[in-house]
Amino acid sequence: MPSDHTPLPPPADSSDPVPPKQRDPERTREDILRIATEEFSTHGLSGARVDAIAARTHTTKRMIYYYFESKEGLYSAVLERAYGGIRGVESHMDLDPLPPETALRRLVEFTFDYHESHPEFIRLVMIENIHHAAHVRTSKGLRTTNSPAIAVLSHLLARGHAEGVFKRQIDAVELHMLISSFCFYRMSNRWTFGALYDIDVSDPRTRERQRRLIADAIVQLMMAPN
Q: For 207-211, which contacts have Cβ atoms below 8 Å and span 24 or more sequence positions?
């Protein structure tokens, strides 16, 4: 019996509830990725089971391996999809018509909102860090996916400095890290932080106060002299 880690040839067994020829390949692949995202973000790489993903997608393990080759291949595809979600929106934000400080605020608020509404993304990033970014390092797709986000921020910083609005010189990658750290920590540590300090980050008033605080902190940092 093959393990979760063993690649298998294309499916050809009668146990597949829907014959391959009747499947929409793109829809099938997307369904698998959607359910696999839930499984990996809940149980981690080692705890997630391809059999469970197959059952929830009404397909077979062989079909999953046909699309993704192995469990690790499926996990890497899930990571690429997760990062692609936030980076795709970032790269298409129309920030140029806005004043630099307003554009930066808009970017921070988007990051805040995205992290809050996609807890599975938070968990997947945490899981991949447990594995020392082993799958991120080997994924050419992830490097390509994340580059536009830095390009957007670099362009915004250059425009802000050229207009004399931004006074502080901060590398785009480090500013990206700073913005992400505020938004990420709030969600990744929400339960322990809430238990220790009796704060509920999902409370609407708390959420709005923290959203404004984080945006104010980043914008004021960039507008203050070095």
A: 207/116, 210/112, 210/186, 211/109, 211/112, 211/113
Asked if 205 and 190 count as a contact pair (C-beta separation under 8 A), the reply is no
Give the tens place of pLDDT for each residue, 72-94.
999 999 999 999 888 888 878 88
For residues 163 and 159, give the distance between their C-alpha atoms in angstroms, rounded to a whole number: 6
CA distances from 135 to 35, 153, 159, 176 (A): 19, 25, 35, 21
Rounded Cα gap, residues 216 and 205, in angstroms: 16
Q: Which domains does the chain have, with CATH numbers?
A: 1-69 (1.10.10.60), 80-223 (1.10.357.10)
Residue 213: CB atoms within 10 A of its CB come to 11
pLDDT one-digit tens code per residue, 145-170: 777 889 899 999 999 999 999 999 99
d(CA 84, CA 72): 18
- Cα–Cα dist 126/79, whole Å: 11
In contact, 206 and 199? CB cutoff 8 Å: yes
Q: How far apart are CA 6 and CA 142, in angstroms?
A: 24
Interhelix angle 100-117/140-162, rounded to 10 degrees, is 150
CA–CA distance, 18 with 63 (Å, rounded to integer):
11
